From TrEMBL:
Coiled coil: none
Organism expressing this protein natively: Pipra filicauda
Domain of life: Eukaryota
UniProt enzyme class: oxidoreductase
Protein name stated in the entry: NADP-retinol dehydrogenase
EC id: 1.1.1.300
Protein family (similarity comment): Belongs to the short-chain dehydrogenases/reductases (SDR) family.
Length: 307
């Protein structure tokens, strides 16, 4: 940060934390978008923006009542009636398969998949399939969802996959010997591990998708005032006290929107963005061998063959 930026940050921290906004004016009429976890927070603001641009937006959520409330608010505000709610629980592979099956039966095209849903700081718990909750929802759930929808993305190309990761990936490791935290568990680290998995998945996916006109990029949205800290009493209070230093969900959605619509990213793939620009990936996030191993371990855990 240069001196001018420091002075700006001290004099007007609100403006500084807001970060960059997506400047693209791209229209999305005729485009079909799925956004996971779009009933609140960053996902909801991403859905609102893409609906305003004219896309058909599928809000894929586990809490249908909350999702319907978000969808009707977005429909009323944007005038776009093509904002649709579909049931998806990423903590249950049966629900993920049902969601994909229905989507593929009902929709002919898919142009943008935004893997946004996430959990953080959960007390130790497991998904319906016995995966540690952070790794299960944030990584394995989205890995399976992407696998099930990939052919439709390829048929609809040019298409984009956007994985919402985090700066927290810098603190993560892929602990192959204890992927489900059964030997040792720390809920902060479990989140970091799952966000590193998002970065590695994006890297390997982009490599495998070369030449298909389907791109895959990851991003950090910034520190955003949202419901993400709901599992920690302390963090919930800290988030409230320091809310002035956090992005609003609209500000936090800008990099997701940028990765989904920016014309200059048409053929950009395998990258990691923050504040609508390329950002530094941790050395562990650039480890191709770990990325390949995580891919095959994920396939084994999910019982799928993805070559
Ligand atoms: N907020 C930040 O500072 C920050 C920083 C870095 C990265 N991120 C990332 O940004 C993404 C969005 O987070 P956010 O801040 O907007 O948090 P949020 O307000 O808590 O939203 C998370 C969304 O994920 C959904 N979700 C959780 N578990 C799910 C499941 N099993 N199946 C389907 N959906 C599920 C939630 O649905 P319910 O409401 O039904 O639970 C909610 O819609 C996450 O991937 C997060 O890791 C956030």
């Amino acid at each position: 940060m240069n001196t001018g930026t420091w002075v700006g940050a001290v004099l007007c921290p609100g403006r500084y934390v807001a970060g960059e906004r997506c400047k693209s004016t791209a229209k999305m009429e005729g485009k079909v978008v799925i956004i996971t976890g779009a009933n609140t927070g960053i996902g909801k603001e991403t859905a609102r923006d893409l609906a305003r641009r004219g896309a058909r937006v599928i809000i894929a959520c586990r809490d249908i009542a909350k999702a319907e409330a978000a969808a009707s608010e977005i429909r009323a505000e944007t005038g776009n009636q093509q904002v649709i709610v579909k049931k998806l629980d990423l903590a249950d592979t049966k629900s993920i398969r049902e969601f994909a099956e229905k989507f593929l039966a009902e929709e002919k095209e898919l142009h943008i998949l935004i893997n946004n849903a996430g959990v953080m700081l959960c007390p130790y718990s497991k998904t319906a399939d016995g995966f540690e909750m952070h790794m299960g929802v944030n990584h394995l759930g989205h890995f399976l969802l992407t696998f099930l929808l990939l052919e439709r993305l390829k048929q609809s190309a040019p298409a984009r996959i956007v994985n919402v990761s985090s700066l927290a990936h810098h603190g993560g490791r892929i602990r192959f010997h204890d992927l489900h935290g059964e030997k040792s568990y720390n809920r902060g680290l479990a989140y970091c591990h799952s966000k590193l998995a998002n970065v590695l998945f994006t890297r390997e996916l982009a490599r495998r998708l070369q030449g298909t006109k389907v791109t895959a990029n990851a991003l950090h949205p910034g520190s955003v005032s949202s419901e993400l800290v709901r599992h920690s009493f302390v963090m919930t209070w800290l988030w409230k006290i320091f809310s002035f230093f956090l992005k609003t969900p609209w500000e936090g959605a800008q990099t997701s929107i940028y990765c989904a619509v920016a014309e200059e990213l048409d053929s950009v793939t395998g990258q990691y963005f923050s504040d609508c620009q390329p950002a530094y990936i941790s050395p562990r996030g650039r480890d191709d061998e770990t990325a390949r191993k995580l891919w095959s371990v994920s396939c084994e855990l999910l019982g799928i063959q993805w070559d």
